[in-house]
Amino acid sequence: LSAVEDQLKMCGHKRDVDVFELFLSQKELTDVIDLSRFKNLKYLWLHHNKLHGIAFLTRNHCLTELYLNNNAIFEIVGLHYLPSLHILLLHHNELTKIDDTVKELKGMLNLKTLSLYQNPLCQYNLYRLYIIYHLPGVELLDRNQVTEKERRSMITIFNHKKAHIIQSIAFGGKVETSWNPKLPLKQKPVQRLPSDFTFADNVDKTMFDNLEDAVFVRSMKRSLMALTTLNWDSVPMREEKFLEEKGPEPPQLLTVTLR
């Protein structure tokens, strides 16, 4: 309470409706009073504190920018009550449940910038594509722009109605990309290489624990190969040449493109 009151005095606000922003960062806060009194609050800085939850924010419907990074937040229940959020920073916290996190953020149609890195949930397999798939409106995730290639990849993996055929040209096997949201995501074990192990500069250094992930990534990176051959059906036989009144048409070529 004192931190909020000090901020109001510093800014010279006498009425709650005049408060559009609050700077409450780096104050060692473990909890914050209910901020619903500030109906017009749009910008809130709460980073670098010791917060564990965000129950005090459920009624600030005008909030557009929320900075909660570098806290100890382990759940964000109630965040879906903030539909106007445009920027949400949650990196360096203790979020572990990726499904619960996505559930809270799904209804935020205005959310464009989101950061979740340095949370335990980021260790899950296909974390980034999973977030992009469930939050298609996000344009900047973990300080990196969401690319069209990532959007195509997440459709291939998570939406089989739009992608019936999965490319499987790698190691002679077919990539199994079925996804069951009810099953828990597998955490990727950390792989360590020997200290004396070196890569050439032209070698992909990405390590995969799952062979199917390696198959999929490799298949998407393969270059295109075009094979061209003569269409012999378009070449007239000797008898046809004599019977035709017009000159023979030039033969046609057939081109097949493979990845």
UniProtKB/TrEMBL annotation:
Species, as recorded: Ictidomys tridecemlineatus
UniProt-listed InterPro entries: Leu-rich_rpt (IPR001611), LRC72 (IPR042655), LRR_dom_sf (IPR032675)
Pfam family of the protein (one): LRR_9
Name of the gene: LRRC72
Protein name, entry field: Leucine rich repeat containing 72
PROSITE patterns reported for this sequence: LRR
